[in-house]
Give the backbone structure.
Amino acid sequence: MTVALCATAIVVLALLWEVSMPWLDRKLDERRHRRERPDGTHGYDPGRERRAEQRARELLRSCVNDEEWGMYSDLGFLRVWGGRASGPEAGQDFGGAPYAYLIYPHKPIVAYLPQTRRLLNEYCVEFPDETRPYGSARLPDSDDVLAKWMALNADETRLISAANMHLPGRQVDPRQVTRDLWRLSQWERERLVREQRRAAAPGGPGGSVPAP
């Protein structure tokens, strides 16, 4: 009798398992769908993302100079001066005028002429994080900026040659870049004024210390 009851219970459990499997699969799919991020990657602990960005900012701060760090902290982007004799693309000649790049997090690098604020090209490059076992393979914002900054300073020609080049406005709104260039000019002017005041203050680099 006991053996028969056990056998019946096992059969019932097996049937229940077979019946419940589609329901469980559907519930798991719904749960995964709710956790999915807008960019198609699965969500993860936002605290981990914030900590990763904080570490990335500390690393960026240790690599760039004070002016560049202030620029990134205040404006959200970095400027890198071009180092080639002509423009970033072969055949571009600006008569010896300097050109520069704006580096945004997870956006193309924008080349422009500082004197006229004329936009030249956009250069799309990506530095995915292949080591992350969770969520998106995108680097934290500050790591992405640092990777572009290092690549431009180390081998500008190679980076520009490998990047996907587009005309201005393909991915970055030219109006935004124009506003950012104006913000950059205002930021530099205010920074210069602060440095001049600091230098002229008593005890400053250019100031005199009152006699005791």
